[in-house]
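Recall that a protein's primary structure is simply its ordered list of amino acids. Everything else, from secondary elements to tertiary packing, is in principle encoded there. The following example makes that idea concrete.
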Amino acid sequence: MQSFNLYTPTEIAFGKGAEAQTGILAKKYGASKVMIVYGGGSAVKSGLIGRVQESLEAEGIAHIELSGVKPNPRMSLAREGVEKALEFGADLILAAGGGSVIDTAKAVAVGAANPGIDIREFWGGREAITKVLPVGAVLTISAAGSEMSDSAVLTNDEIGKKGGVNTDLVRPKFAVMNPELTYTLPKYQITCGVVDIMMHTLERYFTPTQECNEMTDEIAEGLLRTVIRNGWKAYENPEDYDAASELMWCGSLSHNNLTGLGRGKDFACHKLGHEIGGMFDEAHGATLSAVWGSWARYVYKLDVPRFAHYGRKVWGLDIADDEEAAVAAIEETESYFRKLDMPTSIGQLSIGVQPEDVLRKMADSATKGDAIKLGCFKPLNMQDAIEIYKLANHA
């Protein structure tokens, strides 16, 4: 196992009715003025925002709201949130939603802690993040894992470019997790979340590391098996509490770095998917399932035994030959995505099959004009990215 540092400071309040603890937790982490960040009217109609407000008020905490967060969260809204938070004097930013809402809250927390610096400078890599306001989260979607992660992804809607930052400073101080809050999600959001959870683990599982990494692998493989079982149960019955609770906890563990300790991170598929999401506003999980199989077929021969091991440990394949097992593992993964009505090609996204010039434009953007390589399992240059997009570019 390679050397690693692990920092997971987020306090978790998990279970039915956990949102009632929001005010207590916010006060514990020094809040007196909170900005609540959320998406659309459903958070209000469901009563969640009202319950969160009551919980804050019970602790004497003032609050304002920033609503309107959309999937593939927009930088423009986060910038508005920074101005509003500074005017109010917010000392904690509270997200009530899924990954897009939490990432927006993180961006507001970065900007409000650094007045005078546009958050575009941080997301553009021109400024280092050294200060962040405390962030809390009330989770409503099992997917992104942002409630415990060190990352935040935004779409610069001025240029249609999606990108992220990584720093332990944006890890939430606390996360409130009530699986019942996921009951009203459309099935498509549930299954996009299942894919995202799986991919956060797979992007750490397939790396060039050859050293013994037994414990981390066991955690990753167990998490994947749990998500696969319970993802299907939640798809069939979104109000299955046991399935919903397993998915919610898996989502957090999949992206707090636990499933990749002692390994590097690849995340090539995320970067390929981000280009599709940024350009066409496709759902994040769908962009990942659309490209993963093509990526896997493009790279698997670099470590056939690893893909075979994945097939045997995660999918229970009883195939002795490594090559056959590796190929079957890729097919099993795509078959599961299809079972959940998730796309396994670009052509199955709402945008349909794309002309080659669009594929080249996305590959150029992802690799910054072929100046950087994507991932580490096989570092992908611009031509590699084009070839993977081509493999995925069918109905």
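Strands lie at 11-14, 33-38, 62-66, 92-97, 135-139, 151-156, 161-166, 174-177. The mean pLDDT is 97.
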